[in-house]
Specification:
The complex is a heterodimer of chains A (517) and B (439). Helices cover 61% and strands 2% of the residues of chain A. Chain A is built from 26 helices and 3 strands. A two-stranded antiparallel sheet of chain A has the order 2-3. Chain A starts with a helix and ends with a helix. The model of chain A has no long low-confidence stretch (mean pLDDT 84). Chain B is 38% helix and 26% strand. Chain B is globular and about 75 Å long. The model of chain B has no long low-confidence stretch (mean pLDDT 87). Classes of the chains: A mainly alpha (517), B alpha+beta (439). The interface between A and B is large, with 51 and 54 residues. Strand 1 of chain A pairs antiparallel with strand 11 of chain B, so a sheet runs across the interface.
Chain lengths: 517, 439
């Protein structure tokens, strides 16, 4: 036991119960110094000895340890080819981090990756601090190797995080065999892009020993790189124990129009439904219910009061078919099939325009949505506003933009497509005009939903407006001017929402310009 | 004052909410007037009322004024004004001072003149008499403390532990009565020392006992040792006396601030490093709740050209800055590359500790340091020896790694002898910039 420990033990128990260490056991210098000190009572003497022992130990010790066991933090590997984000873009990204604009940060990271830039060192630090501070795990979806560069990868690892996946690199089989579930899913996503057959073989090899929810997760990823080569495997998955797996396999098989699965559905449909191209009419026929239909999950008895059993069976088949399958059924291509379905829906229940909008929006097949919207616009556009808005919402922004360019109609107020992509010029102008129109009529007494929507449009709309067109920029400035000129009392958050929209849109334009320079 | 950078402006903010609010005001359209001259920066900020707020910053101070009703100093409007001035000077125009500003600046100047004219020549005899009265009180307090300590060691720390907080707090109050606030603070710290740190508790009690042994003979000690004892127990020399000492002129870098929560506020030790003299110093500031923050205003990582007067004592780092000779450098000096080994650095620190047994915190400059890791702990090493560091939080670790990038660097460390731990204050990164790692 060392001297300090001896002294501490005495201090813990007290000098009344335990004597201090024997003078003979003290180091020579301590003993001499202690002897030279004036006498006092035993407590004073013990304190003196403790101070001397501390000084003795401190005098000979340094706060250092041997290197053994410790590992040096290795320096960053130099990356001479890295192309760093331009200074103007860095300033904007830094501002969005400071202003806590997660959507703008995510957008900037996506743009950075798309343009092949890496983030400079100081910005990486600000980004990681932001992620830690806000606990924004979603932001990590944008943390890619290309954005990080060598410095970022090093820093990210040194901070104890897992290295972000390299989405462009070919997957390494080791990740599949040795990785966690998340790593396996990442591997599968990458493998389905590069070698879909190899990916399927790996899944097949572990299929029987994999739990049901994981099997469904694996199957979901098959939508990437889906091809007729997957049909046999997906067909076998139709007899899986798990309903989730069966449904996923069926959904994927419907995307293979030439598959056996689709063929049988088309055969059942053909026995019940005929299209007369000359009159553009559909006719329904009765046909016996088959055992195979039951195995495919098609109910025999109608669950709806005003629907016969045979119509109910046809409806179930129709709701499952993709546009590719319809094209095969009608012996045409997808666009023609969409035009036929939009102009003449196969069942009477979808033949009103409002019902057509709802049905088409629910199917959410891009050509079908476009065909239905074109049909309605061409034939005068009279339909119920709410249903029309549902259809426009389901339209792909590019299609909506083209439709606006061809037909010049007013977007209903508060209408924006839901797909997250940059809008075309016409759509951007129409949306800004719609906002302007709404602002013109809004007061503090307007309905709460409209006010709330206007208050929240800022970031989302700013991210989608067409940034490369001067006309759109002018329209955004006009909106700002309109706000300044508005004499009626505008709700405060409506004003700030619109101001934020224009402010962020201008910043986004500057960011994109900086990336191009 | 010179012009602050945006980062430095944020350090002036009283809280995070003010920073957030100020950022929202950094828009020229909110400011119908933005102007400056050699002495001040001012502007009108459009708030929610009909009249805009009048905001101004006196560069000689700095001092802040705003006509808004906020009690925060500086308020969000002033912070926004300074942020705009830091980032968008082109939005400001040179102008003559308006009446409201001229009046405020005059008032400040008059107050300053009145304050300096009030300075009286201290009466040496009266001061000596006051000191003697205080020392007599302290002597009685010391005897009291000695009895208390002896009683603890007689009955043992195990028995003391259950009443540690109450007994230390009670003794601290008695030390306040004996006009020895230095000892009272130490006892307050011991009151809340975790029970698992018993070795440290014992060593610190032994140091307190050492004061009781040395104090009765302090008048026979050399002047610097006497001064050291007196200021450590809480009888510091008068400021005028310290400022009357030999000033040390240098370019001083702020390498970090160590805060300690006190009863009614906090103490802040602003550590400085002299580039020319290679000397460490710290300026001690007390910030009390509710009082205006018109104190030292040392900005994190900033460089100052000026003179420091060190407190008398043994191997002492505490100093006062000579106000008339203290200038914030807007242009950061280029830092030399230091090449001292760890062993040499420690030798300097060990010398200081040998001279002064009461010295607990010793600053060190460690050159050619590299980061080492083991089992989640971080250390600095020069290839031969390693200094383990106190755990760094996420943000400081990030700052450190970003600054050094795994390369060799110079670090400023504060070694705490009572806990045998080392706290990283600042590092000079691979781009030659100083990165302060204290909050």
């Amino acid at each position: 036991m060392n001297l300090q420990q001896e002294l501490l033990n005495t201090a813990l128990l007290g000098t009344a119960k335990r004597s201090p260490p024997d003078a003979a056991a003290l180091p020579e210098s301590v003993r001499q110094a202690w002897a030279a000190l004036p006498d006092g009572d035993s407590e004073d003497r013990f304190f003196q000895l403790s101070v001397l022992a501390s000084a003795y130990e401190d005098g000979g010790s340094a706060p250092f340890t041997a290197v053994g066991g410790w590992l040096p933090v290795l320096p960053v590997m130099a990356d001479g080819t890295a192309k760093f984000l331009p200074a103007a873009a860095v300033a904007l990204l830094r501002k969005w981090l400071q202003d806590n604009q997660p959507e703008m940060v995510a957008y900037a990271l996506a743009q950075t990756a798309q343009h092949g830039f890496s983030l400079p060192r100081q910005l990486l630090s600000a980004l990681f601090a932001y992620r830690a501070d806000k606990n924004d795990i979603a932001l990590e979806n944008h943390f890619h190797n290309s954005v990080f560069g060598a410095q970022g990868r090093w820093l990210w690892q040194c901070m104890g995080h897992e290295v972000p996946p390299d989405t462009h690199a070919e997957p390494d089989d080791e990740d599949w065999h040795l990785g966690s579930l998340q790593q396996r899913l990442q591997w599968l996503r990458a493998a389905r892009r590069h070698q879909p057959d190899h990916a399927r073989e790996q899944v097949e090899a572990v299929w029987k020993t994999t739990p049901a929810d994981q099997r469904a997760n694996y199957l979901n990823i098959f939508s990437c790189g889906l091809s007729p080569a997957d049909e046999a495997f997906l067909h076998s998955a139709l007899s899986d124990r798990s309903k989730q797996v069966k449904d996923t396999a069926a959904r994927l098989l419907f995307r293979l129009p030439e598959s056996r699965w689709v063929s049988s559905h088309l055969q059942w449909l053909g026995e019940r439904l005929h299209y007369h191209a000359d009159t553009q009419q559909w006719t329904l026929h009765d046909s016996p219910y088959r055992a195979e239909m039951k195995a495919a999950g098609i109910d025999e008895i109608s669950r709806e009061k005003n629907c016969s059993d045979s119509e109910y069976q046809v409806m179930q088949i129709i709701e499952r078919l993709t546009l590719g399958a319809w094209a095969r059924f009608l012996n045409s291509n997808e666009n023609e099939a969409a035009a036929v379905l939009a102009a003449s829906p196969p069942l009477p229940r979808w033949r009103s325009r409002a019902a057509l909008c709802g049905w088409v929006a629910e199917k959410s097949e891009r050509p079908l949505c476009l065909a239905a919207a074109q049909y309605i616009v061409r034939s005068g556009g009279q339909t119920e506003a709410a249903s029309w808005r549902v259809l426009l919402h389901a339209l792909h922004p590019q299609d909506l933009n083209d439709l606006l360019a061809q037909h010049r109609f007013h977007l209903p107020r508060l209408c924006r497509p839901s797909v997250e992509t940059v809008w075309g010029k016409e759509l951007s102008l129409a949306v800004l005009a719609g906002i302007g129109e709404t602002v013109r009529h809004i007061t503090v007494k307007s309905d709460w939903e409209t006010q709330k929507w206007l208050a929240q449009i800022g970031t989302e709309t700013a991210l989608h407006l067409h940034a490369a067109d001067a006309e759109v920029a002018t329209a955004a400035d006009k909106l700002l001017q309109q706000l300044a000129d508005t004499e009626t009392e505008l709700p405060h958050f409506v004003r700030t929402g619109c101001e934020r929209l224009v402010g962020l849109f201008r910043e986004r334009c500057r960011f994109e310009q900086a990336l191009k320079q | 004052m010179t012009d602050f950078t945006a980062e430095q402006v944020l350090q002036l903010a009283p809280d995070d909410a003010s920073v957030k609010a100020a950022r929202g005001l950094v828009r020229p359209d909110k400011w119908p007037l933005l102007a400056y001259d050699g002495r001040a920066v001012w502007g009108h900020c459009q708030g929610s009322g009909s009249k805009p707020y009048q905001c101004a910053v006196d560069k000689n101070g700095p001092a802040f004024r705003c006509s808004c009703p906020s009690r925060k100093i500086p308020c969000k409007h002033v912070l926004a004004l300074l942020l705009m001035y830091a980032d968008r000077q082109d939005a400001f125009s040179a102008a003559e001072q308006p009446d409201w500003l001229a009046q405020w600046l005059d008032k400040r100047e008059n107050a300053q003149t009145a304050k300096s004219s009030r300075k009286e020549v201290p009466d040496a005899a009266a001061r000596q008499k006051r000191l003697q009265t205080r020392l007599n009180k302290a002597a009685a307090g010391m005897a009291d403390l000695q009895l208390w300590l002896n009683d603890i060691v007689r009955n043992g720390l195990l028995a003391f532990r259950s009443t540690q907080y109450e007994r230390c707090s009670e003794m601290a109050r008695r030390m306040v009565d004996a006009q020895m606030p230095g000892l009272a603070n130490e006892l307050n710290r011991l009151a809340v020392l975790p029970s698992e740190r018993q070795q440290e508790l014992w060593q610190r009690l032994a140091k307190l006992h050492l004061f009781t042994q040395v104090f009765p003979h302090a008048d026979r000690l050399p002047e610097n040792q006497q001064a050291e004892i007196y200021w450590r127990i809480g009888i510091p020399p008068a400021k005028e006396d310290v400022l009357g000492g030999t000033p040390v002129r240098d370019v001083w870098l702020n390498i970090g601030c160590i805060s300690e929560i006190l009863d009614r506020g906090e103490s802040r030790s602003h550590w400085l490093y002299g580039l020319g003299t290679q000397r460490f110093a710290y300026l001690l500031e007390f910030v009390f709740k509710g009082s205006s923050q018109d104190g030292i205003r040392i900005l994190r990582g900033a460089a100052y050209a000026g003179s420091l007067c060190f407190y008398p004592g043994v191997a002492n780092y505490r100093a006062l800055n000579v106000p008339d000779e203290w200038e914030h450098l807007s242009e950061y000096p280029s830092l030399p590359s230091f090449t001292q080994t760890f062993a040499t650095s420690w030798q300097l620190a060990a010398q200081a500790r040998q001279q002064n047994p009461f010295l607990t915190h010793v600053p060190l400059r460690l050159d050619n340091a590299r980061l080492y890791e083991y089992d989640g702990q971080t250390a600095l090493g020069d290839g031969e020896m390693l200094m383990p560091l106190d755990t760094l939080n996420y943000s400081n670790r990030l700052k450190l790694l970003t600054a050094v990038g795994g390369e060799a660097f110079t670090a400023f460390v504060l070694y705490d002898g009572s806990r045998h731990s080392s706290r990283l204050l600042a590092v000079i990164g691979k781009d030659g910039s100083l990165n302060v790692l204290t909050e």
